[in-house]
Automatic annotation (TrEMBL):
Transmembrane stretches, start-end: none
Official protein name in the record: Uncharacterized protein
KW Transport (keyword) present: no
Protein's UniProt keywords contain Cell membrane: no
GO biological process, one term: cell differentiation
PROSITE patterns: ASX_HYDROXYL, DSL, EGF_1, EGF_2, EGF_3, EGF_CA
CDD domains found in the cross-reference section: EGF_CA
Single GO term (MF): calcium ion binding
Region of interest: Disordered: 1-24
Length: 384
C-alpha cells in the first residue's frame, strides 16, 4: 500500500460531539472470481491479512501497515488468471467494529514472469469516507514459470542435466553440445561435419576436432603442408614437396631421406680438388692434397688447424699459410723427410758411418777414437 486518508466525518463520535481520534484497521483478502461469489472479506482462497488499528487521518505507508510488513504478500499454488481484491476499512472503538468502507477490484494477468519483470498496477480507490492508493503485481516465485506459475525449472550443468530455463515458459533449453529430455546426451558434432582427405573426426562437448594425416593441416584438414618450408634436406640437398611429405635430391657424396648419410663406396666424383678416394671400414673416405680438408676434400685447409706438420714438428700460422719447424733429423715442407746424417761423410780416418734416428754413429779404424774418429790413440808398454 502507498497511502490512505479518511474524512473527519468518519472519525466523529457517535453522539455527534465533533471530531475525535478513532482507530481504523485495514483488511485485505483475495478470492476467486465466479458466479455467486461472496463479497465477505472472509471469503479468501488466496489469504486474508488485517492490520492493527491506526489513528492517523493521513498515512503514507513505508515499511509497515500497522503491524503488517509492507508490501503484503499473498502466496498461491496455481495462478487462475484473475482474482478479486477485497478491502475493508473498519473503525475500532469501545462499541466494537464498524465498517467504514468496502472496496472490490478484479485483477487479471495472463502472462506471469519473474518479480523484476512483472508489470505494476496502480489502484486509486475512493469510498464514502476513505481513500486508498495501492499497487498490485503478480509474479512467479524463483524457479517457477508459465502462465500459471506451475512449471518448475532449475538450471543445471552437472550429472542431473545440462540446460537453462526459458524465462517465459520454463521449458528446458539444452546447453550447447547436449540434447535429450534431460539434456544428458552428448551431441555428436562429427555428424554433419566433414574432415577432409582421410582425417579422423574426434567428438567433444560442443565441438569436434579433425586429426589430420601427414601432409595436411587446417581445422578440417583441407590445406596442404609445405614440408620444404623447414628446409629438411641437409648438405645442400634440393627439397621437393609431396602430397604426404617431401623428397630430397642429394648432391654427390650424400644419400638418405634428408641427404644426411655419406655415400659408402668410392665414385669418380666422390673426392674433390685432387683428393684420392679409398674405402675403409665399410665406408668411403678421401685422402686430400695439401691445402684441402673435409669429407670430400671440399674445404680449403685452414693453416695449422689441419695439423699439416709431421714428426712432432712445430706449426706456426702465417698470413698466407703456415710454416713447420722440424725436429733434428727431419726436413721438408711438412718435416716429412728424415735427414741422412752420413751424406756429409762425418766419420774421418776411414771410419764407417751408420745413420740413426737422431744422428749417426762412427765405427773407427784401429788406432782412432772420438765421435768422428779424429783422435789418435797413444801406445804404452808395461814391463813386470
Amino acid at each position: 500500500m502507498l497511502r490512505a486518508s479518511k474524512s473527519t466525518e468518519s472519525a466523529a463520535t457517535p453522539g455527534g460531539g465533533g471530531p475525535a481520534s478513532v482507530s481504523q484497521s485495514v483488511t485485505l483478502s483475495h478470492e476467486l472470481v465466479g458466479v455467486n461469489r461472496s463479497s465477505s472479506i472472509d471469503a479468501c482462497e488466496f489469504g486474508r491479512q488485517k492490520s492493527s488499528p491506526m489513528t492517523e487521518n493521513h498515512i503514507v505507508f513505508n515499511g509497515n501497515i500497522g503491524n503488517l510488513s509492507n508490501p503484503l504478500h499473498f502466496p498461491f499454488n496455481t495462478w487462475p488468471g484473475v482474482v478479486k481484491l477485497k478491502v475493508d476499512v473498519q473503525d475500532e472503538d469501545s462499541d466494537g467494529y464498524d465498517q467504514v468502507d468496502h472496496y472490490e477490484y478484479q485483477y487479471a494477468a495472463n502472462l506471469l514472469t519473474r518479480e523484476l519483470d512483472a508489470p505494476t498496477k496502480t489502484l486509486r480507490l475512493s469510498g464514502s469516507k476513505t481513500k486508498l492508493n495501492l499497487e498490485m503485481k503478480v509474479f512467479c516465485d524463483v524457479n517457477y514459470y508459465g502462465p500459471q506459475c506451475a512449471v518448475h525449472c532449475v538450471a543445471a550443468d552437472d550429472d542431473s542435466g545440462h540446460y537453462t530455463c526459458d524465462p517465459i515458459t520454463g521449458q528446458r533449453i539444452c546447453r550447447f553440445g547436449w540434447e535429450g529430455d534431460d539434456c544428458l546426451t552428448d551431441v555428436d558434432e562429427c555428424k554433419g561435419h566433414r574432415c577432409y582427405d582421410g582425417a579422423t573426426c574426434i567428438d567433444g562437448i560442443g565441438y569436434y576436432t579433425c586429426l589430420c594425416p601427414p601432409g595436411r593441416t587446417g581445422v578440417v584438414c583441407n590445406a596442404e603442408i609445405n614440408e620444404c618450408v623447414s628446409a629438411p634436406c641437409s648438405n645442400g640437398g634440393t627439397c621437393r614437396d609431396l602430397a604426404d611429405g617431401f623428397s630430397c635430391t642429394c648432391p654427390p657424396g650424400w644419400t638418405g631421406h634428408r641427404c644426411d648419410t655419406p655415400v659408402l663406396t668410392c665414385r669418380p666424383d666422390f673426392c674433390y680438388n685432387g683428393g684420392v678416394c679409398y674405402e675403409a671400414s665399410g665406408t668411403a673416405a678421401c685422402s686430400c692434397p695439401w691445402g684441402w680438408t673435409g669429407l670430400h676434400c671440399e674445404i680449403r685447409g685452414l693453416g695449422c688447424s689441419s695439423s699439416p706438420c709431421q714428426n712432432n714438428a712445430t706449426c706456426s700460422d702465417m698470413i698466407n699459410g703456415y710454416v713447420c719447424t722440424c725436429q733434428d733429423g727431419f726436413s721438408g715442407e711438412h718435416c716429412e723427410i728424415k735427414t741422412n746424417e752420413c751424406e756429409s761423410s762425418p766419420c774421418l780416418n776411414g771410419g764407417l758411418c751408420l745413420d740413426e734416428h737422431l744422428g749417426f754413429t762412427c765405427i773407427c779404424q784401429a788406432g782412432f777414437t772420438g765421435n768422428t774418429l779424429d783422435k789418435l790413440l797413444s801406445a804404452y808398454m808395461f814391463v813386470w
